[in-house]
Each structure stands twice: as C-alpha cells, then as structure tokens.
Write a structure and sequence with these properties.
The protein is an all-beta fold and 67 residues long. It contains no helices and four strands. A four-stranded antiparallel β-sheet has the order 3-2-1-4, with no helix packed on it. β2 and β3 form a beta hairpin. The two termini are 22 Å apart. The chain binds zinc ion (ZN).
C-alpha cells in the first residue's frame, strides 16, 4: 500500500475525498484518498485489484476534508 503525503498543489486548496473501493469480483476492500476532479469524479489513481479486476468496483465516498 502506497502512502504518500501529498502537498497542496501550487497553493491551491485541494478537496480530498476518502473513498472505499470494493472489488466486486473477489471482495477485496481498499481505502484510498482521492481527489475530486472538475467533472465530479473521484480520482484515486487506483487501477487494479490484486485479482486483476480493473473495472468492476463499488466505490463509496467516506468523508470529505479540505486541506
Ligand atoms: Zn479483486
């Protein structure tokens, strides 16, 4: 699990979204912090489950914080 302390980009206040990603194929659950993009989608950088699943997930927003 990658743990990075992201710095605010260029002084812009970034809205951070914590999301739970559950794999619908094997049931693995990931808690990730993402970024809300302009089109309302949450970008987490998450690409693939350990089982190889890349597109069948249930994504649940957990909390919102502004840094
Ligand atoms: Zn999986």
């Amino acid at each position: 699990m990658e743990e990075r302390e992201a710095k605010p980009e260029e002084g812009v206040r970034v809205r951070r979204e914590k999301v739970r990603i559950r794999c619908n194929r094997c049931g693995e659950v990931y808690i990730l912090r993402g970024r809300r993009s302009k089109n309302g989608e949450i970008e987490t950088g998450f690409v693939q489950c350990v089982c190889g699943n890349t597109d069948d997930f249930t994504i649940t927003p957990l909390e919102t914080s502004v840094i």
